[in-house]
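Incident log, structure service

09:12 report received: a user says their structure output differs between two submissions of the same chain.
09:20 pulled the input from the user's history:
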Amino acid sequence: MFSLYLLLKFIHIAAAITAVGANITYGVWSTRVASQTAHLSFVLKTIRFLDNRIANPAYGVLFLTGLIMVFVGRWSITSFWIIAAIVLFIAIAAIGGAVFTPLVRNQIRLVDAGQEDSPEFVRLSRRNAMLGPGLGLLVVLILVMMVFKPTL
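09:34 re-ran on a clean worker, output below:
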């Protein structure tokens, strides 16, 4: 019963739960702090910590185990659902690295400078509020690829 593929699949699913679970909390943190802005710096730094130390490493494990499972298992790297998931994953990583990470960093900088009421902070907060669900939708699309394995 035990196989390398089964072990990789377990690690892959555990990493997905960890990464997506951490990401889902960002909206909760942001909603909760909206009424208690005295804790804004702590919340933003917690989101950054969760992203850098929990979610992103878990996404890395997820990507690696997924690729290894393709080569160890019976899947073809040219399958539509695998290619689509890889393209979506790369898009998420690029948007996360180029937009989300600097956005949170700039929000923290402004809050630490006492500028949480500034027009720039409000603009960044609105952008963050749109970006999070957008990235979440891309993650759900990857999940659809993994579960339903659609073909063309």
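09:41 both user submissions now match this output. Likely a transient worker issue. Closing.
09:42 reviewer note: The radius of gyration is 18 Å. Residues 40-72 form the longest helix (33 residues).
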